[in-house]
Amino acid sequence: SPSLSSFSPSPPYLSLSLSFSFPLTISPSYLSPTNPPLFFSPPRTGTFGRVFLVRHKHSRQFFALKQMKISDVIRLKQETHVHNEKEVLSEVTHPFLISLFWTHHDERFLYMLLDYVPGGELFSYLRSRGRFSNSAGLFYTSEIVCAIEYLHAKDIVYRDLKPENILLDAQGHIRLTDFGFAKKLSDRTWTLCGTPEYLAPEVIQSKGHGRAVDWWALGILVFEMLAGYPPFFDDNPFGIYQKILAGKLEFPRHLDFYVKDLIKKFLVIDRARRLGNMKNGADDVKRHRWFKTVDWDAVPLRKLKPPIVPKVSHDGDTSNFDVYPEDEWKKEPPVAHKDLDLFKSF
């Protein structure tokens, strides 16, 4: 595992009055955020997390350092999600998943050192283009299917598939990020979590849920990528939930016949009949006619040609992300020892 002293500031440098507080005999100048600090995306539950760009002093490789306020993690009841994220990321290695290299905590913050993926969020490209072509949607869906198949083989359910959680690397291939809702499954789980437009019916109805929720979410994502909007939307979450449970789908005319069939098979209310969740699992998905041109052996080898190649001028380029101004985190007080005990494993 890399030590903190192995990381140097990434230019442009900030002054040394940083918000890091490490109980180690090193200078905080070994880790410095970009100026202004780089957030990868606004955290889903307030302001307990932010991400900085850092650089390894010897290899010169860039990494993303995720920093979370312990006080806010506890206040927002996110302890379980934070531990789940660490547990899941500690046991996965896949070309389409973000990698975790190291974790740490001090009296104020939790830290996770992750890959830096410079291409930005798929969400940004989808919004700027309005919608994707059938071939672009096919590319992204194929890579996501491989990622979901890998997670499910490890008894992990992702539970937060959406365009904001899909990053593009410098070549244009996907990386799933933000594993706060991911969970190792022993059986079913009952926690209500996820984004309203992407929630499966069994989650809304608190029936207990498992791997099937990821295939439902993929159906929502495929629809949104190709239509430019999700199939179930409303001004408030309750209205969205009502539409999801009603299950009425209205497709735009331009959608390909086979992709409409695929979406219908993902968005089946009865999870026992949902594509991906039957006896053959992901193999049923891969055999669907929409994927007839896909070489599934080539997909995890990253041999398919990406439809979008992000503009990345160098490994530490942050131009594909929104940046947020520095805040008052450096004034964050230490938390009580009893609260620190909740994060002994970090």
TrEMBL record:
<feature type="domain" description="Protein kinase">
    <location>
        <begin position="37"/>
        <end position="291"/>
    </location>
</feature>
<keyword id="KW-0723">Serine/threonine-protein kinase</keyword>
<dbReference type="GO" id="GO:0005829">
    <property type="term" value="C:cytosol"/>
</dbReference>
<comment type="similarity">
    <text>Belongs to the protein kinase superfamily. AGC Ser/Thr protein kinase family. cAMP subfamily.</text>
</comment>
<dbReference type="InterPro" id="IPR000961">
    <property type="entry name" value="AGC-kinase_C"/>
</dbReference>
<dbReference type="GO" id="GO:0005952">
    <property type="term" value="C:cAMP-dependent protein kinase complex"/>
</dbReference>
<keyword id="KW-0547">Nucleotide-binding</keyword>
<dbReference type="InterPro" id="IPR008271">
    <property type="entry name" value="Ser/Thr_kinase_AS"/>
</dbReference>
<keyword id="KW-0418">Kinase</keyword>
<keyword id="KW-0808">Transferase</keyword>
<keyword id="KW-0067">ATP-binding</keyword>
<protein>
    <submittedName>
        <fullName>Uncharacterized protein</fullName>
    </submittedName>
</protein>
<feature type="domain" description="AGC-kinase C-terminal">
    <location>
        <begin position="292"/>
        <end position="346"/>
    </location>
</feature>
<dbReference type="InterPro" id="IPR000719">
    <property type="entry name" value="Prot_kinase_dom"/>
</dbReference>
<dbReference type="GO" id="GO:0005524">
    <property type="term" value="F:ATP binding"/>
</dbReference>
<dbReference type="Pfam" id="PF00069">
    <property type="entry name" value="Pkinase"/>
</dbReference>
<dbReference type="GO" id="GO:0004691">
    <property type="term" value="F:cAMP-dependent protein kinase activity"/>
</dbReference>
<dbReference type="InterPro" id="IPR011009">
    <property type="entry name" value="Kinase-like_dom_sf"/>
</dbReference>
